[in-house]
Protein backbone atom coordinates (compact mmCIF):
# COMPACT_ATOMS: atom_id res chain seq x y z
CA UNK A 1 0.00 0.00 0.00
CA UNK A 2 1.42 3.41 -1.01
CA UNK A 3 2.02 6.01 1.70
CA UNK A 4 -0.78 8.30 0.45
CA UNK A 5 -3.16 5.34 0.13
CA UNK A 6 -2.29 4.20 3.62
CA UNK A 7 -2.91 7.71 4.96
CA UNK A 8 -6.32 7.83 3.30
CA UNK A 9 -7.16 4.37 4.63
CA UNK A 10 -6.56 5.40 8.25
CA UNK A 11 -8.43 8.68 7.82
CA UNK A 12 -11.50 6.80 6.54
CA UNK A 13 -11.22 4.21 9.31
CA UNK A 14 -11.05 6.94 11.95
CA UNK A 15 -14.12 8.57 10.41
CA UNK A 16 -16.00 5.27 10.38
CA UNK A 17 -15.26 4.54 14.03
CA UNK A 18 -16.45 7.98 15.12
CA UNK A 19 -19.29 8.28 12.56
CA UNK A 20 -22.89 8.80 13.64
CA UNK A 21 -25.55 6.35 12.51
CA UNK A 22 -26.76 8.69 9.77
CA UNK A 23 -23.29 8.83 8.20
CA UNK A 24 -22.79 5.04 8.18
CA UNK A 25 -26.13 4.55 6.40
CA UNK A 26 -26.07 7.46 3.94
CA UNK A 27 -22.37 7.72 3.12
CA UNK A 28 -21.50 4.03 3.06
CA UNK A 29 -24.41 1.57 3.00
CA UNK A 30 -26.62 3.56 0.61
CA UNK A 31 -23.79 4.28 -1.80
CA UNK A 32 -22.76 0.62 -1.88
CA UNK A 33 -26.30 -0.79 -2.28
CA UNK A 34 -28.10 1.88 -4.33
CA UNK A 35 -25.23 3.47 -6.27
CA UNK A 36 -23.22 0.30 -6.69
CA UNK A 37 -20.02 1.76 -5.23
CA UNK A 38 -17.24 -0.73 -4.49
CA UNK A 39 -16.78 -2.06 -0.96
CA UNK A 40 -14.12 -0.06 0.92
CA UNK A 41 -11.08 -1.93 2.18
CA UNK A 42 -12.30 -1.28 5.72
CA UNK A 43 -15.14 -3.80 5.30
CA UNK A 44 -15.04 -7.58 5.41
CA UNK A 45 -17.51 -8.75 2.77
CA UNK A 46 -20.08 -11.51 3.28
CA UNK A 47 -18.65 -12.96 6.46
CA UNK A 48 -21.17 -15.19 8.25
CA UNK A 49 -20.51 -13.60 11.62
CA UNK A 50 -23.74 -14.97 13.11
CA UNK A 51 -22.46 -18.54 13.10
CA UNK A 52 -18.87 -17.94 14.19
CA UNK A 53 -17.15 -17.17 17.47
CA UNK A 54 -16.12 -13.46 17.52
CA UNK A 55 -13.29 -14.28 19.94
CA UNK A 56 -11.76 -16.27 17.09
CA UNK A 57 -12.75 -14.08 14.13
CA UNK A 58 -11.93 -10.62 15.47
CA UNK A 59 -9.28 -8.76 17.46
CA UNK A 60 -10.74 -7.36 20.70
CA UNK A 61 -8.82 -4.06 20.50
CA UNK A 62 -10.06 -3.15 17.01
CA UNK A 63 -13.50 -2.14 15.70
CA UNK A 64 -14.50 -4.11 12.59
CA UNK A 65 -17.06 -3.33 9.90
CA UNK A 66 -18.63 -6.31 8.16
CA UNK A 67 -20.95 -6.60 5.15
CA UNK A 68 -23.31 -9.54 5.73
CA UNK A 69 -26.64 -10.87 4.59
CA UNK A 70 -29.23 -10.00 7.18
CA UNK A 71 -30.14 -12.77 9.61
CA UNK A 72 -31.96 -10.97 12.42
CA UNK A 73 -35.14 -9.67 10.81
CA UNK A 74 -37.76 -11.84 12.49
CA UNK A 75 -36.10 -13.43 15.51
CA UNK A 76 -34.54 -12.40 18.76
CA UNK A 77 -31.38 -14.44 18.36
CA UNK A 78 -29.24 -16.10 15.70
CA UNK A 79 -28.26 -19.74 15.27
CA UNK A 80 -24.86 -19.01 16.78
CA UNK A 81 -22.00 -21.45 17.28
CA UNK A 82 -20.74 -23.87 19.91
CA UNK A 83 -19.59 -21.10 22.24
CA UNK A 84 -22.73 -18.91 22.11
CA UNK A 85 -25.08 -16.86 19.94
CA UNK A 86 -26.01 -13.27 19.05
CA UNK A 87 -29.13 -11.92 20.80
CA UNK A 88 -30.97 -8.70 20.04
CA UNK A 89 -30.74 -6.27 22.96
CA UNK A 90 -31.91 -3.16 21.08
CA UNK A 91 -34.60 -3.58 18.42
CA UNK A 92 -35.03 -1.47 15.26
CA UNK A 93 -34.54 2.25 15.73
CA UNK A 94 -35.35 4.72 12.95
CA UNK A 95 -32.33 6.57 11.61
CA UNK A 96 -33.34 9.95 10.19
CA UNK A 97 -31.56 12.72 8.37
CA UNK A 98 -30.91 15.60 10.76
CA UNK A 99 -31.24 18.04 7.87
CA UNK A 100 -34.45 16.82 6.21
CA UNK A 101 -36.02 14.51 8.79
CA UNK A 102 -36.30 11.81 6.13
CA UNK A 103 -36.04 8.19 7.24
CA UNK A 104 -32.75 6.72 5.97
CA UNK A 105 -32.83 3.27 7.49
CA UNK A 106 -32.81 1.28 10.71
CA UNK A 107 -30.39 0.12 13.36
CA UNK A 108 -30.54 -2.69 15.87
CA UNK A 109 -28.05 -3.82 18.52
CA UNK A 110 -27.03 -7.40 19.26
CA UNK A 111 -24.81 -8.90 21.95
CA UNK A 112 -22.87 -12.15 21.75
CA UNK A 113 -24.01 -14.26 24.71
CA UNK A 114 -21.62 -17.01 25.76
CA UNK A 115 -22.87 -20.35 27.01
CA UNK A 116 -20.32 -20.26 29.82
CA UNK A 117 -19.57 -16.97 31.54
CA UNK A 118 -15.95 -16.22 32.49
CA UNK A 119 -15.11 -15.04 35.98
CA UNK A 120 -13.18 -12.03 34.74
CA UNK A 121 -14.66 -8.55 34.48
CA UNK A 122 -17.33 -8.74 31.84
CA UNK A 123 -16.69 -7.38 28.39
CA UNK A 124 -18.86 -8.54 25.55
CA UNK A 125 -18.96 -8.48 21.77
CA UNK A 126 -21.61 -6.04 20.52
CA UNK A 127 -22.91 -5.68 16.98
CA UNK A 128 -24.68 -2.60 15.61
CA UNK A 129 -26.57 -3.71 12.50
CA UNK A 130 -27.50 -1.04 9.92
CA UNK A 131 -29.99 -1.59 7.08
CA UNK A 132 -31.72 0.59 4.50
CA UNK A 133 -35.47 1.14 4.16
CA UNK A 134 -37.32 -1.41 2.02
CA UNK A 135 -37.91 1.06 -0.83
CA UNK A 136 -34.14 1.50 -1.25
CA UNK A 137 -33.24 -2.15 -0.74
CA UNK A 138 -36.34 -4.38 -1.19
CA UNK A 139 -34.40 -7.65 -0.85
CA UNK A 140 -32.59 -6.47 2.29
CA UNK A 141 -29.76 -8.61 0.95
CA UNK A 142 -26.94 -6.78 2.71
CA UNK A 143 -26.45 -4.85 5.93
CA UNK A 144 -23.46 -3.21 7.63
CA UNK A 145 -22.45 -4.57 11.02
CA UNK A 146 -20.18 -2.61 13.33
CA UNK A 147 -18.60 -5.05 15.80
CA UNK A 148 -16.82 -4.03 18.99
CA UNK A 149 -15.66 -5.57 22.28
CA UNK A 150 -17.15 -3.35 25.00
CA UNK A 151 -17.29 -2.94 28.75
CA UNK A 152 -20.71 -3.26 30.38
CA UNK A 153 -20.71 0.49 31.07
CA UNK A 154 -20.14 1.18 27.37
CA UNK A 155 -22.96 -1.21 26.41
CA UNK A 156 -25.36 0.50 28.80
CA UNK A 157 -24.42 3.88 27.40
CA UNK A 158 -24.90 2.62 23.85
CA UNK A 159 -28.38 1.34 24.72
CA UNK A 160 -29.26 4.60 26.47
CA UNK A 161 -28.51 6.43 23.21
CA UNK A 162 -30.36 3.81 21.16
CA UNK A 163 -33.67 4.05 22.96
CA UNK A 164 -35.82 7.16 22.65
CA UNK A 165 -36.34 7.26 26.42
CA UNK A 166 -33.75 7.26 29.18
CA UNK A 167 -34.01 5.42 32.45
CA UNK A 168 -33.99 7.74 35.44
CA UNK A 169 -31.75 5.21 37.17
CA UNK A 170 -29.18 5.32 34.38
CA UNK A 171 -28.90 8.94 33.27
CA UNK A 172 -26.68 9.74 30.34
CA UNK A 173 -23.94 12.30 30.88
CA UNK A 174 -25.10 15.78 29.90
CA UNK A 175 -22.19 16.24 27.50
CA UNK A 176 -23.18 12.99 25.72
CA UNK A 177 -19.72 11.54 26.32
CA UNK A 178 -19.05 8.14 27.85
CA UNK A 179 -17.08 8.28 31.06
CA UNK A 180 -13.53 7.04 30.44
CA UNK A 181 -13.11 3.27 30.51
CA UNK A 182 -9.33 3.47 30.92
CA UNK A 183 -6.89 5.57 32.87
CA UNK A 184 -4.29 7.97 31.51
CA UNK A 185 -0.50 7.97 31.56
CA UNK A 186 0.82 11.52 31.86
CA UNK A 187 4.31 12.79 32.58
CA UNK A 188 3.52 14.13 36.05
CA UNK A 189 1.55 12.38 38.79
CA UNK A 190 -0.02 15.73 39.66
CA UNK A 191 -1.28 16.10 36.09
CA UNK A 192 -2.90 12.66 36.22
CA UNK A 193 -4.64 13.56 39.46
CA UNK A 194 -5.88 16.84 37.98
CA UNK A 195 -7.22 14.96 34.93
CA UNK A 196 -9.26 12.55 37.05
CA UNK A 197 -10.62 15.32 39.26
CA UNK A 198 -11.61 17.30 36.16
CA UNK A 199 -13.53 14.23 34.93
CA UNK A 200 -15.56 14.35 38.15
CA UNK A 201 -16.11 18.11 37.82
CA UNK A 202 -17.24 17.83 34.19
CA UNK A 203 -19.95 15.30 35.03
CA UNK A 204 -23.12 17.24 35.81
CA UNK A 205 -25.20 14.56 37.53
CA UNK A 206 -25.58 14.42 41.31
CA UNK A 207 -24.32 10.83 41.31
CA UNK A 208 -22.54 8.63 38.82
CA UNK A 209 -24.84 6.75 36.45
CA UNK A 210 -25.93 3.53 38.12
CA UNK A 211 -24.51 1.45 35.28
CA UNK A 212 -20.94 2.41 36.16
CA UNK A 213 -21.28 2.28 39.93
CA UNK A 214 -19.44 -0.68 41.45
CA UNK A 215 -18.99 -1.58 45.08
CA UNK A 216 -15.34 -1.73 44.22
CA UNK A 217 -14.13 -2.21 47.80
CA UNK A 218 -16.09 -5.45 48.23
CA UNK A 219 -15.15 -7.12 44.95
CA UNK A 220 -12.23 -9.27 43.90
CA UNK A 221 -10.23 -7.40 41.20
CA UNK A 222 -10.80 -10.19 38.65
CA UNK A 223 -14.52 -9.38 38.73
CA UNK A 224 -13.75 -5.76 37.83
CA UNK A 225 -11.17 -5.96 35.04
CA UNK A 226 -9.90 -8.16 32.24
CA UNK A 227 -6.19 -8.75 33.06
CA UNK A 228 -5.48 -9.76 29.44
CA UNK A 229 -6.74 -6.46 28.04
CA UNK A 230 -3.79 -4.59 26.49
CA UNK A 231 -5.18 -1.16 27.40
CA UNK A 232 -5.74 -2.25 30.99
CA UNK A 233 -2.11 -3.39 31.22
CA UNK A 234 -0.88 0.02 30.06
CA UNK A 235 -3.37 2.47 31.58
CA UNK A 236 -5.51 0.68 34.16
CA UNK A 237 -9.31 0.54 34.17
CA UNK A 238 -11.58 3.27 35.56
CA UNK A 239 -14.21 2.21 38.09
CA UNK A 240 -16.80 4.69 39.40
CA UNK A 241 -18.43 4.67 42.82
CA UNK A 242 -20.86 6.84 44.76
CA UNK A 243 -19.18 6.19 48.08
CA UNK A 244 -15.73 5.64 49.50
CA UNK A 245 -14.29 3.52 52.30
CA UNK A 246 -13.35 5.35 55.47
CA UNK A 247 -11.39 2.74 57.41
CA UNK A 248 -7.95 1.29 56.67
CA UNK A 249 -9.09 -2.22 55.77
CA UNK A 250 -12.21 -3.40 53.96
CA UNK A 251 -14.34 -6.41 54.77
CA UNK A 252 -13.51 -9.64 52.98
CA UNK A 253 -14.34 -9.42 49.29
CA UNK A 254 -16.58 -11.75 47.35
CA UNK A 255 -14.15 -14.43 46.19
CA UNK A 256 -11.75 -13.82 49.08
CA UNK A 257 -9.14 -11.22 49.93
CA UNK A 258 -9.53 -7.59 51.02
CA UNK A 259 -8.42 -4.06 50.13
CA UNK A 260 -6.13 -2.12 52.48
CA UNK A 261 -5.13 1.55 52.38
CA UNK A 262 -1.37 1.70 51.79
CA UNK A 263 -1.09 5.42 51.00
CA UNK A 264 -3.20 7.97 52.87
CA UNK A 265 -4.81 11.11 51.49
CA UNK A 266 -2.56 13.22 49.28
CA UNK A 267 -3.73 16.68 48.25
CA UNK A 268 -3.93 17.47 44.53
CA UNK A 269 -3.37 21.15 43.80
CA UNK A 270 -4.30 23.43 40.94
CA UNK A 271 -1.72 25.60 39.17
CA UNK A 272 -2.57 28.39 41.61
CA UNK A 273 -1.91 26.16 44.61
CA UNK A 274 -5.56 25.58 45.55
CA UNK A 275 -6.45 22.10 46.83
CA UNK A 276 -8.78 20.55 44.23
CA UNK A 277 -9.16 17.14 45.81
CA UNK A 278 -7.38 14.11 47.18
CA UNK A 279 -6.02 10.75 46.18
CA UNK A 280 -5.08 7.62 48.09
CA UNK A 281 -4.01 4.09 47.23
CA UNK A 282 -5.51 0.73 48.19
CA UNK A 283 -3.75 -2.61 47.72
CA UNK A 284 -5.47 -5.97 47.41
CA UNK A 285 -4.32 -8.79 49.66
CA UNK A 286 -5.11 -12.42 48.97
CA UNK A 287 -5.72 -14.83 51.82
CA UNK A 288 -2.47 -16.66 51.08
CA UNK A 289 0.82 -17.49 52.76
CA UNK A 290 3.64 -14.94 52.20
CA UNK A 291 6.14 -15.64 49.44
CA UNK A 292 9.47 -17.14 50.56
CA UNK A 293 12.46 -15.55 48.86
CA UNK A 294 15.95 -17.03 48.92
CA UNK A 295 18.77 -14.78 50.09
CA UNK A 296 20.34 -12.77 47.28
CA UNK A 297 17.52 -13.56 44.86
CA UNK A 298 15.95 -10.75 42.82
CA UNK A 299 12.17 -11.16 42.84
CA UNK A 300 9.29 -9.03 41.62
CA UNK A 301 5.75 -9.60 42.81
CA UNK A 302 2.61 -8.33 41.11
CA UNK A 303 0.02 -6.47 43.14
CA UNK A 304 -3.49 -5.16 42.50
CA UNK A 305 -3.94 -1.52 43.49
CA UNK A 306 -6.70 1.07 43.37
CA UNK A 307 -5.80 4.73 42.92
CA UNK A 308 -8.79 6.56 44.37
CA UNK A 309 -9.59 10.17 43.45
CA UNK A 310 -12.20 12.45 44.97
CA UNK A 311 -12.88 16.18 45.10
CA UNK A 312 -12.68 18.38 48.16
CA UNK A 313 -15.58 17.55 50.52
CA UNK A 314 -17.36 20.80 49.61
CA UNK A 315 -17.66 19.66 45.98
CA UNK A 316 -19.47 16.48 44.92
CA UNK A 317 -18.14 14.53 47.89
CA UNK A 318 -20.11 11.39 47.03
CA UNK A 319 -18.35 10.87 43.69
CA UNK A 320 -15.25 8.69 43.63
CA UNK A 321 -13.18 7.77 40.58
CA UNK A 322 -11.00 4.68 41.05
CA UNK A 323 -8.29 3.46 38.70
CA UNK A 324 -7.54 -0.20 39.22
CA UNK A 325 -4.12 -1.46 38.09
CA UNK A 326 -1.83 -4.46 38.37
CA UNK A 327 1.75 -3.42 39.05
CA UNK A 328 5.15 -4.95 39.76
CA UNK A 329 6.53 -4.58 43.28
CA UNK A 330 10.19 -5.41 43.92
CA UNK A 331 10.67 -7.66 46.92
CA UNK A 332 13.71 -7.27 49.14
CA UNK A 333 15.59 -10.55 49.74
CA UNK A 334 14.86 -12.08 53.13
Quickly describe the structure.
The protein has helices spanning 3-18, 21-33, 54-57, 152-162, 189-202, 230-235; strands spanning 43-45, 64-68, 84-96, 103-114, 123-132, 143-151, 237-241, 258-269, 275-285, 299-311, 320-331.
Structure description:
This protein is an alpha+beta fold and 334 residues long. The chain has two domains: 3-166, NAC domain (Metal Binding Protein, Guanine Nucleotide Exchange Factor, Chain A), CATH 2.170.150.80; 189-287 and 300-328, NAC domain (Metal Binding Protein, Guanine Nucleotide Exchange Factor, Chain A). It has helices spanning 3-18, 21-33, 54-57, 152-162, 189-202, 230-235; strands spanning 43-45, 64-68, 84-96, 103-114, 123-132, 143-151, 237-241, 258-269, 275-285, 299-311, 320-331. β1 (43-45), α3 (54-57) and β2 (64-68) form a beta-alpha-beta unit. It is elongated and about 65 Å long. The termini are far apart.
Characteristics:
elongated, Metal Binding Protein, Guanine Nucleotide Exchange Factor, Chain A, 5-stranded antiparallel sheet, 2 domains, 11 strands, 334 residues, alpha+beta
